[in-house]
Amino acid sequence: MTEKSDFPYLHGFSPVEQERLRRQARFAEHTIYQNVNFSSTKKVLEVGCGVGAQSEILLRRFPDIKLTGIDLSDKQLAAAKTSLGQLAFAKDRYELKQMSAEDLKFDAESFDGAFLCFVLEHVPDPRRVLSEVRRVLSPGGIVYITEVLNSSFFLDPYSPNVLKYWMAFNDYQYDQKGDPFMGAKLGNLLMQNGYQNIETEVKTWFLDNRHPQKRKEIIEFWSELLMSASEQLVSAKYVDQETVDGMKKEMSVVANDPNAVFFFSFIQAKARNGMF
To answer: Is residue 4 a part of any domain in this protein?
Structure first.
């Protein structure tokens, strides 16, 4: 995450949340990286590296890259340093820096690739971030951006407390100058910042009786995601404890329903710095 230390980040920075982020990265890896290709790239900037969960995947998948990860959170960077330091394949191939994504302390054309995953939804000025990323990319440099589209969430059986909680979840993020619908806006943002060869792809988790084990996994993952924000939302009075308890019960019901349906879409964009 690229958040100011006093920014009321929805999920917090606890060790439990840090481990959830690592599980989330592993869970979503196949879907996110299907069309990500840094095989011809040497120097990659990861904006909002957080605990290093995506950093690990990037270094493993693309053994020829040198990765620079930036983040504003000391706690997240410390966690990233610890986890990446244990990986033999990552040795001498990365560096981590505390830095604002809106004011990158790199020279122009320092990188030939950039990667942002669920980051712009949390920053107050995504245009500025994308402008800075373009500045530090070499001509023809490639960027991959993956972002949420929270309006797409659907769950069956009908779960009113889950939906009420989800609306509060989105309201809180929006009120804190984030954007839970950032994914749908990536094409416009990239065009406004002068990127070229812009492509967007809708990524969807649509799970029902055809994939019962995967459905079970995603409902468990989603329950963790929802609960990770509960303390913050209750404290800020966006929901009450009764709604949280109701949400937990309904998610348990869905998890055990033999005909449950889960649907969620997010967006991945790919673009180049200048014509290529």
So the answer is: no
Per-residue buried b or exposed e for 231-243, using 16+ beta carbons within 10 Å of the residue's own CB = ebbeebebbeeeb
pLDDT recorded at residue 81: 95
Q: How many domains does the chain have?
A: 1
- Contacts of the segment 210-213: beta carbons below 8 A, 24+ positions apart: 212/258
The pTM assigned to this predicted structure is 0.92
98-138, pLDDT tens digit by residue?
Answer: 999 999 999 999 999 999 999 999 999 999 999 999 999 99
Q: Residue 118 is part of a domain; what is its CATH number?
A: 3.40.50.150
Distance between CA 56 and CA 62 in Å, rounded?
Answer: 10
State which residues form the domain around 132. Answer: 15-272
Lowest mean pLDDT among 22-36, 63-77, 85-99, 104-118: 22-36
Would you state the pLDDT for residue 169? 96
* Residue 107 CB coordination number (10 Å): 9
Q: Are 165 and 243 in contact (CB under 8 A)?
A: yes
